Amino acid sequence: MIAETARRFRTARLAFGHGTLNANDEAAWLVMHALGRPFEELSQHLSQPLPAAARRRAAQLIERRIAERIPAAYLTHEAWLGEHRFYVDKRVIVPRSYIAELLRTQLSPWLPRRSPGTILDLCTGSGCLAIVAAHTWPGAAVDAVDLSPAALAVARRNQREHGLEKRLHLRQSDLFSALAGKTYDLILSNPPYVGAAAMRRLPAEYRHEPEMALAAGCDGLDLVRRILAAAPFYLNPRGWLVMEVGHNRARVERAFPRLPFIWAQTSGGDDCVLLLQRESFPSAAGPAMPPNRSTARLRLA
Ligand SMILES: C[S@@+](CC[C@H](N)C(=O)[O-])C[C@H]1O[C@@H](n2cnc3c(N)ncnc32)[C@H](O)[C@@H]1O
To answer: What residue ranges define each of the domains in the chain, with the CATH number in brackets?
Structure first.
């Protein structure tokens, strides 16, 4: 069934990238989900006949995957970042941030070996990065914000499922707007960063994701600009901003020639995730209050 499904997926020219990268893995994931067994047990089940009920469930999922182009993660309601499982539905994008790879090594070599005390996940969506960060640094207090109340409802479910009600604080905020007076040792962000032309070219699978989680103006940098302008005012001394910007490195460097970005190597390349320490922002030595948007742009560009 897996082999035949993978053939059908290839013929239908499905797009992958929401948890798996190819037709075989996507087919195996759906069949194992229908069987009610974890993906890692695949090899144990290959020689056994698929029970009729599981076969029916799998067939339904596979038909919807092909006919409606729904990402498998929305059909199974689960997504993984490394060993961490998250509930997902169409209120949030399917977790796949490269920042999670860097958290696996505790952002070494940039962060000091001691744990950050306070962490902010800006644009948290399902809460996935905030939750991975909370597991990575069990002593840290984590705030996570999103503008979308619907996304926050999903994040709250994941917060509960990971037992983080006490240490992870979720709140609705337009970027930093609800965080006046707060500062952090580490700010993580995977904001929307898809430009208008790229939005028009997105495969059908991505159109099932919330547009506000992807679209970021004409060049994809609307949110990135606002975050870079405000971040130094929300970072503690020697605090770090770690932000995913898609494959937009050249664009970001052109827009902010004075900022000495560090570009982390991830499985997506070295043009997706930037790091900046508070002291690298020219505005960090300035007033203690965030500037308004137009003066911030002048100062950084
Ligand atoms: C690319 S998704 C990232 C979600 C999650 N961090 C992840 O890595 O899977 C971007 C998120 O930013 C949120 N968002 C969009 N505009 C925002 C804003 N102005 N302030 C806060 N969050 C915003 C969207 O609702 C969406 O959940």
So the answer is: 2-76 (no CATH), 97-300 (3.40.50.150)
